[in-house]
Design goal:
This protein starts with a strand and ends in a 10-residue tail after the last helix. It contains 21 helices and 13 strands.
């Protein structure tokens, strides 16, 4: 039973049972909301239609960002350009690796540029559909405070949607969207405003928003950010700051975490880098004062991997890739360990959450992502020591299977492509004789000896050709022979693009001097044909070696049938 007595004391209203709704009493039409044994008096302004409700002046809830803001000139310009466009909904999705500064960029743009153009400017933490609903309900309350305690969340969310649908000139920031599908209903209901979305998801925006990929800071910007943090309270010793920024890979979150730690501990960038090298697990997890425990590099990527955890393969692949050099990792390496659509899907999901970058036939992993992913932590299910040890062994196994015979003609490009990854996986290793890591280290050492010898031989061939041209002329038979020798040297190490011009030059000379039927002319024609044909004629090689040579020669997606 809900009861309401008027202020005059001579009227009352009693409602029993499960009835709910709004009742009006007396000449002045006092409006009473009846809800589950509770009665609330609604003021007249609560009944203004949402379409007729103007926003309070300068209404905003954008979080205040107190840190330094550097760089991002291009991203800010893209936001300006799109948001200034004419009419209709403008939806932009800033995406990138966790910790790269998406929320900071959105907050900075909204506070410094958006607030002067739009009202309201409303920030919604959008980790889930429930969070979006809660953010919209808070917007309704801010627009119409009379409803703050009398309407349920679902009703207030609907009020906010009605207001957005009937007004222009507002900006909604949806921060940290996990699934583009969760914001689609909101975008469909509000066709006249401006949305700025941040997300780790790089895919799924093609039909909803204009994507803006956010990259790491360049070296100068990273140094500016870290030095600004360290010198905020006065002069500081910045010894080693450039090297540390390189090690942190220009990631703003890592720079801010390092800056807070150094400020608190009173150490230099070089000393912090030494701690990072000696105690990576601790340093990726620890923070200085003022840093949210959830916003450390280890924790941010832990959350991302949690979202992929229903399928263990993406995590396994990331731990394997973490042992290689950061850039130009041939996708064909993974084919030695996994196969089928599961591999393609796992790589795609890591790329979708910006944990790796896919560049046609190669992959890249941010150096700090790799460093964290290969640092064991018994308290992190994504970095258990036994899993990381297994990943290193798998990374070495894939390389050992991919390495061609050093004596096979023309396959040295594969070696040069894989050597940085061999160095990375064997770095600081003390492998036992007979192990895969020991094999890789031995092969890499032998290759370097052979490379040095061949490099000296090619230098001798280059010198011999130059001297023959100078002493005997361009078309002397000895000069042509010297040119042939240099071309064969280039081909031995797989430098076909350097051998082909030499063969072409000799063929033209012999056609002119000896005629088309001379045996030397015929040999020149055959040498040129072989050099041009070689990258497409290695069908006898293992499939993985063919793929690696395709990458080197820039042959996209070549199949055996096309060869």
């Amino acid at each position: 039973m809900a009861r309401h007595r008027s202020a005059e004391g001579d009227r009352s209203l009693a409602v029993g049972g499960d009835l709910s709704g709004i009742a009006s009493t007396g000449e002045g039409a006092t409006n009473v909301l009846i809800q589950a044994d509770q009665a609330s008096v609604l003021p007249a302004e609560a009944f203004v239609r949402m379409a007729d409700l103007p926003p309070p002046p300068r209404l905003t809830n954008v979080p205040l960002y107190k840190g330094l803001f550097v760089g991002r000139v291009q991203a800010l310009a893209l936001l300006d350009e799109a948001q200034e466009g004419p009419g209709g909904a403008v939806v932009q999705a800033v995406h990138g690796l966790g910790g790269i500064g998406k929320s900071t960029l959105a907050a900075h743009w909204a506070a410094t540029r958006g607030a002067a153009r739009y009202c309201p400017v409303w920030w919604i933490t959008a980790d889930s559909a429930a969070d979006i609903d809660a953010g919209l309900a808070k917007l309704a309350t801010a627009l119409q405070p009379a409803l703050s305690n009398v309407l349920p969340l679902e009703a207030r969310k609907e009020q906010a949607l009605q207001w957005l649908a009937s007004h222009e000139g507002w900006l909604i920031i949806l921060d940290n969207v996990n699934d583009p599908a969760e914001v689609q209903p909101l975008l469909a209901r509000a066709p006249h405003g401006r949305f700025l979305i941040t997300s780790r998801r790089a895919t799924g925006w093609h039909h909803l928003a204009t994507p803006i990929a956010l990259d790491v800071l360049d070296q100068a910007e990273a140094v500016e950010l870290l030095s600004g943090i360290l010198t905020h309270g006065g002069e500081r010793d910045l010894d080693g700051i450039v090297e540390l920024c390189t090690e942190l890979g220009g990631l703003p979150l890592a720079i801010e975490q390092a800056g807070a730690y150094m400020t608190q501990a009173g150490i230099t960038p070089r000393e912090y880098a030494e701690l990072l090298a000696d105690h990576p697990g601790t340093m990726y997890r620890d923070r200085g004062e003022g840093i949210d425990p959830a916003h450390t590099v280890a924790r941010v990527w832990h959350v991302t991997l949690d979202r992929l955890a229903h399928d263990p393969l993406p995590g396994r692949i990331l731990r394997i890739l973490a042992w290689y050099a950061p850039d130009d990792i041939p996708r064909a390496l993974l084919g030695h360990l996994f196969s089928g659509p599961e591999l393609i899907s796992a790589v795609g999901r890591l790329a979708a959450y910006s944990m790796i970058t896919v560049r046609r036939d190669t992959l890249a992993v941010h150096r700090l992502v790799g460093a964290v992913a290969r640092t064991p932590d018994p308290d992190d299910p994504h970095r258990l020591p036994e899993d990381i040890a297994q990943a290193r062994e798998q990374a070495a196994t894939a390389l050992a299977r991919a390495l061609p015979d050093r004596e096979v003609f023309g396959l040295w490009p594969v070696w040069r492509m894989l050597l940085p990854h061999v160095d990375a996986v064997t770095y600081q290793a003390r492998p036992e004789p007979g192990s895969t890591l020991h094999f890789l280290r031995k092969e890499a050492a032998l290759l370097r000896v052979t490379l040095a010898a061949v490099a000296r031989k090619i230098e001798d061939l280059q010198r011999a050709l130059s001297e023959s041209v100078r002493e005997l002329g361009e078309d002397h038979p000895d000069t042509l022979t010297a040119r042939d020798g240099l071309a064969y040297g280039y081909e031995y190490v797989g430098e076909w693009d350097r051998s082909i011009p030499l063969h072409e030059r000799n063929l033209r000379a012999r056609l002119r001097l000896l005629g088309p039927d001379h045996r030397d002319t015929v040999r020149s024609r055959r040498d040129l044909a072989d050099a041009r044909r070689w990258p497409q004629t290695y069908t006898s090689l293992p499939r993985s070696t063919q793929q690696l040579l395709d990458i080197y020669h820039g042959i996209p997606g070549t199949t055996e049938d096309e060869r």
